[in-house]
Amino acid sequence: MKKAKYGLIALVSGVLAATAVLSGCGQSKKEVSKNDDRLTVYLWENRLMKNIAPYIHEQFPDQDIEFIIGNNDTDLYSYFKEHDELPDIITVRRFSGTDAQDLQPYLMDFASYDVVSKYYSYAVQYYKNTEDEIQWLPICGIPQTIIANKTLFDQYGIKIPENYEEYVQACQQFYDNGIKPYSMDLGEDWSNNEIIQAAAIGEFTSLDGIEWRNGAETAADEVKFDDALWKRIFSETSQFLKDSHFGKEDINIDIDTGTQMFVEGKSAMFHGHPTVMQQLQKQMDAELIRIPYFSQTSDESYVYMTPSLNIAFNKNLEKDREKLDTALDVLDCMISEEGQKLIADGSGVISLNTDVPTMMQDVPGLEEEINNNAVYIRYSAQKSFDASLEAVHGLLSGEMDETQAYDTFRSVMNRKDPEKKATVNFENEYSISLNDRNSRDAASSILTTIREEKDAQLALAPYYYFTSSMYKGECTSSRVGMMTAKSSDTALYVAKINGKQVYELVKNYLADADENFYVTNKYELPIASGMKAIVNQAESGFSLKDLTVNDKKIDKEKEYSILLTDTTMSVLKKINPKCEIEQLKDTTLSSAWTEAMSKGQQPSAPEDYIEVEQ
Q: Which terminus of the chain is more exposed, N or C, with fewer CB under 10 A?
């Protein structure tokens, strides 16, 4: 169906807040990836591959749509663009307009399409570039709040806070009773990014804060800072850290430690989105509730919201109307009620789509903020995470006062990236896209390289751990690293099993990879190395016909060493619980690949690892 163009409704320039989520359901010749008929969609983490990709295939069974895992960094797409291989649809989560400046000439403007009219105005106010174009759109919001142990509050007779003053009193009371008020995982960069904005949320939602944010989102080079505003922000950040009784010891608290402290009742509050709270509730014999973030300058409170992903279209889609229509159908599917639930991984979705009703009914404790449209969309420029970590850690350690912390934050935000030196000079080009033999040459090359480095005879991995084509010429270490899914990295394992067990492993992977993910189409076939799978395809899916090693049927009695990832290890464990599986210590797929390439060697050649028979 053709999509009618629609004039962009004037954006409201009010306070950042509201409720909502999304609703429902000819490119230039390429040197490496030569298949242009399909629509290529990059999703930034493998959870999305498992959740939303099968749903979209189900909605559009006759459309040729290939989903590929990406990374949470726009530089991956800059790498593609430099080689004239920008995908049709790209997504990231950590995003600011400044991060995608070099992509701007190559991205489509959504402003003239009716999809923008479906969005609440507050949801897109920071997505306009200096040309008044909207090249990126957020896909539903996830509320990030304080999670409080109400049972612990009641046990000590402490009132659930309803404003900042009462929050401070509650923290002091817990501290006096020997309980840590708030176990925030300040060893993680995302929590430091959150704490600055949450502590001073009243400043970020003020007119001064909105004006600064608008400028920062579109800054072409240096981000300009309003000194008066930012001195207030860091004064309130420092005050929040003190009032919450955070100290030097919190610098090293990671996500696991912070979570465990809360689960064991050693802290009264943690933070997270609805899915995190559901997971915590299962582990705890206590009543948990949500608390919003409070302004220090008024009695207002806000839901701190994280877009689940941000999406952009390749401008070349406008040269192929049929393909563009398919892309817009995919976007409509993502912003449908069901699409948003799958993307947000459950309940507690703030709909940015005016056609989709609120999905916060099962998320009590935030009714007032939702009804008052008091929702703050986080600022997440790539550099803001490092800048926040350095500044907050400086305050916690006592090495910085408020002024020094602000100076550090501003300096890191505007720090010039050092010129990146090449790690490897690739002599060959391999595509990440599915080829005519139903295999992915780049993924095969990467997996085979790692297998040989780890002295394993065989390897089996899901397709969604491999992100990028390899291009002839020099490549930096950061871009080498982005050829695997750093945002969804996996540990590596080695098992020694006989040929019969290898056969059963591949057979079961094709039939049932795990409880949440099934191989439903050719694009989801696994990557193998050291062996070749001959697969039958039927309407019901795929089944293993044969497995060969060195062009001969696998020896069912012979023992093989096989390299596995989290998913394939789980499949093996399920079918063979007694099998001994060794995890390679301090090694992931991404680290093993970057380490191999750091030696300056060439990657292994791709293998002919799969054959699909109709």
A: C
How far apart, in whole angstroms, are the C-alpha atoms of residue 54 and residue 57?
A: 5
Enter the tokens of residue 251: 């610098």
What single string gives the DSSP state of each residue in 519-530? --SGGGPPEEES
Query: How many whole angstroms from its chain centre is CA 612?
Result: 32
Could you give the CA distance from residue 118 to residue 21 in angstroms, rounded to a whole number? 10
Contact between residue 407 and residue 197 where contact means Cβ atoms under 8 Å apart: no
Decide if 260 contacts 254 (C-beta within 8 A): no
CB count within 10 Å of CB 34 equals: 11
pLDDT tens per residue, range 176-188: 999 999 999 999 9
Rounded Cα gap, residues 403 and 149, in angstroms: 35
Q: Which of 52, 3, 83, 178 is nearest to 479 (CA)?
A: 83
Q: Which residues pair with 476 in a beta bridge?
A: 422
11 has pLDDT over 70 = no
Tokens of 208: 């001064």
Residue bearing the bigger pLDDT, 465 or 511: 465
The 10s digit of each residue's pLDDT in 265-314 is 999 999 998 889 989 999 999 999 999 999 999 999 998 988 889 999 99
Strands (E), 395-540: 422-426, 458-461, 473-476, 491-498, 527-529, 532-538
Q: For 438-442, what is the mean pLDDT?
A: 96
**Tokens of residue 303, six digits:** 């839901």
Q: Is residue 551 within 8 Å of residue 495, measured between CB atoms?
A: no
Instruction: Using DSSP, state whether 384 is helix, strand or coil.
Output: helix
Alpha-carbon separation of residue 89 from 63, 92, 249, 314 (angstroms):
15, 11, 43, 6
Task: Determine the distance from the C-alpha atom of residue 489 to the mean position of all C-alpha atoms in its chain, rounded to a whole number.
Answer: 11
Tokens standing for 300? Answer: 């207002």
Which three-class secondary structure state does DSSP give residue 113? strand
Model confidence band, residue 120 (pLDDT cutoffs 50, 70, 90): confident
